[in-house]
Amino acid sequence: MSDPNEFNPNDETPPVLGSWRRIYAVVLVLHVVLIILFYLFSNAYA
Question: CA of 31: how far to CAs of 5, 6, 37, 41, 46, in Å?
């Protein structure tokens, strides 16, 4: 039988933004923004 007070690392929430889904969304949005910025800079200075 397991102790209900036992620490389970899978039950942890991330320290920022409250959920892993939000963190993944922020990373994805930042990735798209960086791609767009690199595209615009490369066209402006090509």
Answer: 39, 37, 10, 15, 22
Q: What's the predicted TM-score (pTM) here?
A: 0.68
How far is it, in rounded angstroms, from Cα 28 to Cα 31?
5
**How long, in residues, is the chain?**
46
The maximal CA–CA distance of the chain, rounded, in angstroms, is 66
pLDDT digits (tens, 9 = 90+) for 7-22: 777 777 888 888 889 9
Gap between the Cα atoms of 12 and 3, Å rounded: 17
